[in-house]
Design a protein that fits this description.
alpha/beta; Rossmann fold; 8-stranded mixed sheet; 8 strands; ubiquinone biosynthesis; S-adenosyl-L-methionine; methyltransferase; UbiG_MeTrfase; transferase
Length: 234
């Protein structure tokens, strides 16, 4: 199987792995938005007792929080160092109900079709060569009636200015080179990937940032960061 990953992207996040759980590090935005995305997931799909796979889990920020919410979580990624950091954090924090594997989502989908109540894939689609393949694999992994949660960046002038120029070069919220504009996805494009994979769109939210208060919030504006919730037909 051809691995749907960019070696440069894997290396980039591998080099930053030791900073993953420092809330004031390069991953500060992930720590700040995690309560918002976890709350949104919980509203639509209460996690207690659910079996969940977190695709592109990195150092495990979302995986860990979903396990603490009562889910049985498998975090998967193809970058070795962040996975080791995730495992170490779970051990040190005493988090129960979470495990990690270095495996491609397409490979896991072939291994465990319809094996999960919910699938999350957050801030990952803009880093892979073939995002549609990831969406298809997520649809295969989820049980009939189950939920798939996705998030990524919109592709337009506003997102270029705010997510790349603003976040990486002006405010320095993210390391330079974190994102490649050409890989951003319009909501209509991602929604089409979902429909093609047999997923029905249920909800969408935008993720906004206020530089004055330095706070994130969920709302209706999907111009920059956005989240989609889909369900597989029963």
């Amino acid at each position: 199987m051809t691995i749907n990953a960019d070696p440069q992207e894997l290396a980039k996040f591998g080099e930053l792995a030791h900073r993953w759980w420092d809330p004031e590090s390069d991953f500060k935005p992930l720590h700040q938005i995690n309560p918002l995305r976890l709350g949104w997931i919980q509203q639509l799909c209460p996690l207690a007792g659910k079996r969940v796979v977190d695709v592109g889990c990195g150092g495990g920020i979302l995986s860990d929080s979903m396990a603490r919410a009562g889910a049985s979580v498998l975090g998967i990624d193809l970058s070795t160092k962040p996975l080791r950091v995730a495992e170490l954090h779970a051990m040190e924090a005493g988090t129960q109900g979470v495990e990690y594997r270095e495996i491609a989502v397409e490979e896991l989908a072939a291994e465990q079709p319809a094996g999960f109540d919910a699938v999350t894939c957050m801030e990952m689609l803009e880093h892979v060569p073939d995002p549609a393949s990831v969406v298809r694999a997520c649809a295969t992994l989820v049980k009939p009636g189950g939920w798939v949660f996705l998030s990524t960046l919109n592709r337009n002038a506003k997102s270029f200015l705010l997510a790349i120029v603003g976040a990486e070069y002006v405010l320095r919220m993210l390391p330079k080179g974190t994102h490649e504009y050409a890989r951003f996805l319009k909501p209509s494009e991602l929604a089409q990937f979902c429909r093609d994979a047999g997923l029905g769109l249920q909800s969408s939210r935008g993720l906004g940032y206020n530089p004055l208060t330095q706070r994130y919030s969920l709302g209706a504006d999907t111009d920059v960061n956005y989240l989609l919730a889909c369900r597989r037909a029963p």
